Records
---
Amino acid sequence: MPADATPSFLLVSELPSAGGRLTLEDDESHYLTRVCRVRPGERVTATDGRGALALLRVIERGRRAVVEVESCERASARRQAWVLAGAPEGERGDWMVEKLAELGVAVFQPIDCQRGGWERMKGRSDRWRRLAVAALRQSRRRFLLEVREPQVLAEALAGLPAGAGYWLADAAGSPAARVPAPRDGVTVGLIGPAAGLSPAERGVAETAGFRPISLSDSRLRAETAALAWASWWSAAVVRSPDRP
Amino acid sequence: MPADATPSFLLVSELPSAGGRLTLEDDESHYLTRVCRVRPGERVTATDGRGALALLRVIERGRRAVVEVESCERASARRQAWVLAGAPEGERGDWMVEKLAELGVAVFQPIDCQRGGWERMKGRSDRWRRLAVAALRQSRRRFLLEVREPQVLAEALAGLPAGAGYWLADAAGSPAARVPAPRDGVTVGLIGPAAGLSPAERGVAETAGFRPISLSDSRLRAETAALAWASWWSAAVVRSPDRP
């Protein structure tokens, strides 16, 4: 990145190739003009949240800011984490989403479980998507966390990619230090709700190939288990950081 | 644990040996009688937060509950994590403390840094100690997180145990997957404040033997870095859980 790049980091749904111009949506125009206070001629970084990373030159600021793409590099994710999570207590879902986004999780799939559903969180998905965007900017990631609508476990399992690594967070599982670190490809973590999975749900998960993994030497709250699992996945990356 | 053990888990400052009787303090009497609703004759588990784990039989409930120690086993910690942390933004210190306690961190040492101090959090230490106690109960741990008063970095470093592993959370550090997993003994994690450590502070930490470690492939907020570091430490335990 050039020395004059500002700390701004935009999320733009469609990024043209180098040389292309783009009029930003309201949100990003506001962010660029009012929050980052960039001026015409300055450069900013942008992603489409799906792996593209572009260097943009600001042409016009204001309510409908215009930028020109100087360079744009597209990449696909070599590693991807999906989190299937039962509902934690109280308002803890908000920060679960924020932290999963910071740690680079690709998909957040809330699971309505027999011992606890996400009803209280109805209408939260817009808020969660905003939290995910803020975390993407904060962490300067090129992949945006996808926040899905709640499903029951069997539905969610039917939609999982084949050939992934499947892990069930479980205080009585194999210690994380004794299982292979998650490298490339998709890795799925299933976290029960605050009251735990029912025996039937556990059976469904085991039949689907989920293996129990213990992330600590003690029980963790639902949201902490989700975080610890995502940290375990995130810390297993072997490359040095190459994000902007 | 016997089948009649209730989910209650008490924190008792001094635990007599087997056969001894004990009148509980107000807080624990209330917790036992009102929250857990145990009755005379029932058994509960207790810790002193310093490694002792006891099975208690309830003799009397009420405002000054009386229990008898049936068995008490004392242990010292084979692994211990200390977190030295600069201030995160807003109210994020609260959940930092809660999550560090759940993950089994032994010492939380807030660090007043050149680019950010804990002034806003003055008077929080009582609240943090309550959060640590709640997390200990939740996770049924036998070691209570020690919440210390803020210090500047040089002071805190002077008080560290010798021969520990010293790690500085740093997005540009060695990937966690490429450094030895923290096993027995003391491991110390240093996390900068939201605005980062100053170059001078970084120098002080490096001179003291802190090595930079990257917990993710991207930048993390201060509180997320603390969590990810503690998760890394916690997930490296090789024993299966043996907590009650």
Note: The helical segments of chain B are 26-35, 92-102, 125-139, 153-158, 199-207, 222-235.
---
Amino acid sequence: MDSIYLLSPMIAGAVGLVIAAFLYFRVKAQPSGNETMNRIAGYIREGSMAFLVREYKVLAAYCLVVGALMFYALGSEAALWFILGAVLSLLAGFIGMKAATFANVRTTQAAAESTKGNALLVALDGGAVMGLAVAGLGLLGLGAVYYCYRGTEHVGTILHSFAVGASSIALFARIGGGIYTKAADVGADIAGKVIENIPEDDPRNPGVIADNVGDNVGDVAGMGADIYESMVAAIVSAMAIALTIAPMSLPQIMTDSSDVAAVRMMGVGLPLILSTLGLIISIVVIFMARALKNKKPATVLRSSLMLPPVILTIVSYICMPMIGVTQNVTWALAAGAFGGALIGLVTEYYTAMKPIRLVAEAAQTGAGTGVIRGLAVGMESVALPMIIVVIAAYIADAQLGLYGIALAAVGMLAGTAVVMTVDAYGPIADNAGGISEMSGLDPKVREITDELDAVGNTTAAIGKGFAIGSAILTVVALFSAFNMEVNHVRQMNGMGPMQLDLTSSGVLIGILLGSILPFLVGATTMTSVGKAAGKIVVEIARQFKEIPGLLQGKAEPQPAKIVDIATSAALWEMILPGMVAIVAPVAIGFLMGPQALAGMLAGGLAVGATMSLFMANAGGAWDNAKKFIEKGGLPGHKKGSDAHKAAVVGDTVGDPFKDTSGPGIAILIKVMSVVSLLIAQLIALR
Amino acid sequence: MDSIYLLSPMIAGAVGLVIAAFLYFRVKAQPSGNETMNRIAGYIREGSMAFLVREYKVLAAYCLVVGALMFYALGSEAALWFILGAVLSLLAGFIGMKAATFANVRTTQAAAESTKGNALLVALDGGAVMGLAVAGLGLLGLGAVYYCYRGTEHVGTILHSFAVGASSIALFARIGGGIYTKAADVGADIAGKVIENIPEDDPRNPGVIADNVGDNVGDVAGMGADIYESMVAAIVSAMAIALTIAPMSLPQIMTDSSDVAAVRMMGVGLPLILSTLGLIISIVVIFMARALKNKKPATVLRSSLMLPPVILTIVSYICMPMIGVTQNVTWALAAGAFGGALIGLVTEYYTAMKPIRLVAEAAQTGAGTGVIRGLAVGMESVALPMIIVVIAAYIADAQLGLYGIALAAVGMLAGTAVVMTVDAYGPIADNAGGISEMSGLDPKVREITDELDAVGNTTAAIGKGFAIGSAILTVVALFSAFNMEVNHVRQMNGMGPMQLDLTSSGVLIGILLGSILPFLVGATTMTSVGKAAGKIVVEIARQFKEIPGLLQGKAEPQPAKIVDIATSAALWEMILPGMVAIVAPVAIGFLMGPQALAGMLAGGLAVGATMSLFMANAGGAWDNAKKFIEKGGLPGHKKGSDAHKAAVVGDTVGDPFKDTSGPGIAILIKVMSVVSLLIAQLIALR
């Protein structure tokens, strides 16, 4: 392949980073408002950064231990790229968080002194820094692996190691961040509403700062690491399949398929090229969105999410023939890209349309019936996304076999930069509202930030659907890559392919054991949020009791203590579920062999995919049912009515459902698959 | 085989039925108390029977339609035995319900005028009628099939048809009964506590009769059909495996294994012989329990549940060598029997011990945190039962391969009569308390019935664990039987065995589609309960508004209207989830072939097993956490406190979780497997 192809992923990645830097400084140059606003924003920024620093220390220790193990088992280069995969993820999280915590207060200030359009722009720019950092660093890293190791024998191992680095960080950042954000949210809510009966985001509540920190920690840094890892894993799975697929099964990706080595080489390079296209298209879309800042915010954000699949398909259709690639690639890619958009729309339906009215109505007869209805909505919402994934996988498989499924995952994640931009926009707008409230600004400012926030909530639902959908497809691809890697190693050792018959006891036992794991991660994360929230409630109650004048607004709360409690709890509690994800596949793989491990991945996929959809969407439905009542959706039941209180119970349950356990389970199945791929060569002969 | 072996299942079944008849008339001969008590008991009996009659009409229509289809596809005999399998299930439900609705008021009366021991005895006898009817009719029916068709070519088809009849009734009875019982329970509770603020079981509440009817409809008739079908399905799966297993894989069940035909014949007959032993042992245990009536009720019931595995293992160890059978059979049987008991104990831990205190404590900070903690407990409770099933399956597989797994399921269900006795005891004791309250008897009577009821709740948890555990193991066995049947047909047509490789797209797609179904059944049943409960609340509110003097206790409520609403709702709402269970495997089997169907069964198993454990145990934990607070378990929080109200919300959510959706999902996966087994020969060549 020409050197232009070779270099293009890294060049595109670097361009993305340069634009991210440009937007970062543009955001920072915006006016940041009065002293109170800066003080509050300072608290949030300090709390977020303090969490990140402490989290990174824990993760550094983890990386050293696992890096040492990898050094021992797979050599120094594997260990090095594992650490690089992790460091790039940390870097993306750090950059994004910095940008978000500058953008929040500047969004508030723009809403106060400038137009809604400018406020939207600041929030969007802040999100775009994260979006471009995630996609840019991902492409840069994988492009570098490919550039350095293409054609060598251990390119597979290096790719897997890089992916495990990315996955590890995503796992802990997502779970730790998820526990933090919901412990602070639930804790502050309960303490504020129930114990002291003071309104949301009230500056007297010592938990409000931690709640705002949580938005950044969970929805910016956590989500960023998660999407970064999905993108890396999807690309790596496609490359791994191309590297290990048997010559007779090579997919029909080149118009001239006579040279097997050339086809294989193209198969390995193609995922990177397609992701490069995706990043370029994403940059264009981000600038289009910036240009449309004065349109309705909802229109701007939704069209940003829906455009990339369309453009990507057209561009691929035009470009593929130019490099001698068949249109099968375009169709597989499009199946994934449109599938992702469709899943986003289904998610929006279940978390923002008719179902939330049903949940709100059910809350009229009490918290119990409201919770029941939300659970039912969540369960129902599982079907369509799964069917869409199946159809996308089916189409892609018909085009290019298992390689096609991996390309579909790449296609679903091609718009990563845009999805992440919109996702990170959400907490910025949310924070902007909190800062406006806590700084006692004119209620009109809050009105603007509330509108921006509401749009962010809807698009966050779409983004979340995207994330889980792509996770499922990626796991299917990784699962195939794992099996191919095992068979590749077996074949090189003169053994026949692994028998993965569904009725063999090893596979069946693996499936049953795998089905437990999502529930274990769900149980531990739900419990963690509950416990940490309880500690926060106790501390808030203590402050109101022991700080004279706090309730009257005459004294300052001590938010740092709450931040500290949430941080410690999150970092401590993330270890057990995180370890489950990493230890389970290693233990089963080494103790029971690759068949049982394949079964475990399949069982984990079936349960994990459905559970994460169920939990994320039930949580979204409760959240928006509550907001629906607050906006007067149920005549005769306004904020503070019994129906509203019942809906708040649903929202409380939904908080860890949608932001801790649901995403935690989705990342569990990704990490298990990536770890399995890495150890495949070590256990293939068992 | 000698004719004594051939006839013994039918003889034992008939003996069981004779004893059931004896106990039935013994119960009926007990004094039934004063006129008020008889009037209330009459309402409950009439409501229960009215439901049964209307349900049976719907099921008759279903049986005619499906019977006609089977007549067309598989011949007249298959259709006949399908209907017989269904009719025996209906008969067991009818007998059990009759007995239970006589026993309830007589238990109250025994508590009023005799000793606690005699009250326990009446309730136990009432339950034993159901227990013996279920096990007796099951053995009688399967014994007859075996007697008439042994050695013929179509014995497999007849067995499958009989099992599908049993499964179909179980499916609808379980789901319809589950919707009824929880709609009435939730509806009466909400209306009573929230709207009118009157205590539980208050005779003024028009929904209380329906609530008591629901206990019979759901926990007697529904549970009975469910356990009857588990027993039938376990036996049929073992027989089917023995019929179709390849000669070279025949399990080592006979000490002299030189005659392949004899081994196969013994393999087919053995499940019936072992179940016959199980029934005899159960009868002995039931009479032991009767003799111990003056001991602590908890001791009596718990030892009844724990004894059968021990006795069965000993008896099998002694008897098997006498008929030339290896001890491998004993070990496989024991693995299942002890596994079932262990799962029961694990269930008891999660629904009656430390975890419920944690849920109660979490309710101190609100309904939201209480619900979160209960969900976490339910999720955590999935792991151990699944691991126990895996270990039991592993041991059984090591002894006798897949046939051993089926025998383990037979072993787990050998104590069916006892388990069902204890399960049916629960609603009788519950009803007895309700009747005592509604009849205005001395509070001391209620104290006795409350103690009997509390014991019933704990043992019900054990029984429920048993039921789900045996369902999971049975599904594993049925799944194996399905695959063998397919391969058997393929081999007879000169084709190689079906390729069930986990990585083939058909299997993978099947797994993903199968994982949706438990969520669909969960969603529809949760929604149905919510909707029906809402209608009941509206009707109760109407009665309090429109019947003058009702609230003051000067006028009579109209319970029949509530019974009618619950009945219509349950019968109507059971159709959709029921159809999912039957249509899904047929559609996928005929459209996509046996590989995809096998994948669907595996995906359904992984998700269904874990979801049903999660829901059943979370529901049990919430229920008992509420009761824990009511009994003063949390110092400073008694009945009516905020913590108690919060726990009531958990209990409301838990009601459909544990008694509608959880069991509904367990039966879904059983029915899908049985239906697949039936159609295996029709789709094997696709």
Note: Chain B touches chain A through 76 residues (CB under 8 Å).
